[in-house]
Amino acid sequence: MACRIHIGLFTVMMVAATALPAGAQLLPQVTPKPAKAPATQPAQIVVETSPNAEVYLDDQYTGRASSEGRLVIGNPKPGEHNLRVSLAGKRDFQRKMTVVAGKEAKIVAALADLPTAGSVRENSKDGLKYVWIPPGTFMMGCSPGDDECNDDEKPSHQTAISRGFWIGQTEVTVRAYKRFAAATGRQMPVDPNFNSGWANDGMPIVMVSWDDAHDFCTWAGGRLPTEAEWEYAARGGNPEARYGKLDEIAWYDKNSGGQTHEVAQKRANGFGLSDALGNVWEWVDDWYDHNYYQNSPPQDPSGPKSGQYRVLRGGSWSLIPSVIRVSFRYSLNTAVRNYVIGVRCGGEVVNP
Questions:
Q1: Are 72 and 44 spatial neighbours (Cβ–Cβ below 8 Å)?
Q2: Residue 280 in contact with residue 344, Cβ under 8 Å?
Q3: Tell me, what's the pLDDT at 349?
Q4: 144: preceding bond cis by omega (within 30 degrees)
Q5: Which residue has the higher pLDDT, 292 or 24?
Q6: Please, where are the H alpha helices in the chain?
Q7: Which terminus, N or C, of the chain has the lesser number of Cβ atoms within 10 Å?
Q8: SS3 19
Q9: What's the mean pLDDT in 23-28?
Q10: Helix crossing, 174-184 with 210-219: angle to 10°?
Q11: CA dist., res. 265 & res. 317, Å (int)
């Protein structure tokens, strides 16, 4: 209700407030809309490397770097991944990496030149020398004219090794294994009578299981070679059952005197490897399958996916000549340790 009041020259209009019903509001309540969360950007990996280099994520080809040396991998799954960059004539770049959702991961993959065939470098961690084995193709399995082959060495088959690798110039020595034991807090294996107290550091280490061998090579920065890599390197470019006259190249039952001998006392093969035959058996990475050669992949075979036994190669000081051949295959339970079993490491043991 309104009324007029005259005060002097002025007229004042007064308005009486109208009572509102209980709970009523003069203006309606407005609930603000929640702010939209910013859209999550997909993760990506940006690789900067050599022009035309091939890029692999978890061994899956993702593309080739541009002429400017750049490749973007869009929307990779968050988590751990293995990145590999390859280019002919260059050493592969490999790195483990973590992808975070919505984030960009930038990787600079510098590709170093490959070493030349037969290059020798020392690994500062284990103190051993390693030889560069170039990529190549060879006949794996029973050698031409070899009438002592077992069925598991057949058929002979062409095998390509597509990437070069380092491999020990010698078997792992007692001296190198002592470094490993000291660095990791492990006990040395039980010493043999012919090297009491592990007094002779130049002899090959023995009494190592497959796991011991695997752990040593991993500690040294490498890995166990595959069976195919081992045979390719052991042949040294020679297609025959042995890379030289037996007594010139190997310690075996007729000339060993019943024990191992210091490494590198016999003539090396064409790649410069000593004791690839004889002295001690060498564990390799592969599981054993008697019939594996029936369906072995033609390039970079890595053995069966699983098995009961692992493969050993090369023979030892205790064996007859028919076993001391580059194609001979032997298998044992991974836990076995013996005075005739040692190891030779390979892989990326030496970095530029």
A1: yes
A2: no
A3: 77
A4: no
A5: 292
A6: 174-184, 210-219, 227-235, 246-249
A7: N
A8: coil
A9: 55
A10: 80
A11: 13
The DSSP code sequence of 257-300 is: -SS---TT-S---TTS-S-SSSSSEEEEEEEP-TTGGGS--SBS
The helix/strand/coil state of 234 is helix
**Running DSSP on this structure, what letter comes out for residue 216?**
H
Per-residue pLDDT reduced to its tens digit, 253-274:
999 999 999 999 999 999 999 9
Starting from the edge strand earliest in sequence, which strands make up the sheet with 310-313, in order? 330-332, 310-313, 281-287, 341-343
Kindly indicate the confidence band of residue 41, based on its pLDDT and cuts at 50, 70 and 90: confident
Burial class (CB in 10 A: 0-12, 13-18, 19+), 309: middle
Who wins on pLDDT, 92 or 208?
208
**Two structure tokens written together for 109:** 């993959």
CA 310 to chain centre: 18
The distance in angstroms from the start CA to the end CA of the chain is 97
- Domains for the chain: give ranges and CATH numbers: 44-108 (2.60.40.1120), 120-347 (3.90.1580.10)
124, two tokens = 């500062």
Contact 206, 189 (CB under 8 A): yes
How confident is the model at residue 125, as a pLDDT? 96
Pairing of the two strands 281-287 and 341-343: parallel
DSSP 247-259: HHH---TTTS-SS
Distance CA 116, CA 134 (A): 8
Confidence of residue 12 (pLDDT cuts 50, 70, 90): very low
Question: Are 78 and 45 in contact, with CB atoms under 8 Å apart?
Answer: no
d(CA 84, CA 66): 16
pTM greater than 0.85: no
Residue with tokens 């010139």, as numbered in its chain:
248
Query: Is 242 within 8 Å of 251 (Cβ atoms)?
Result: no
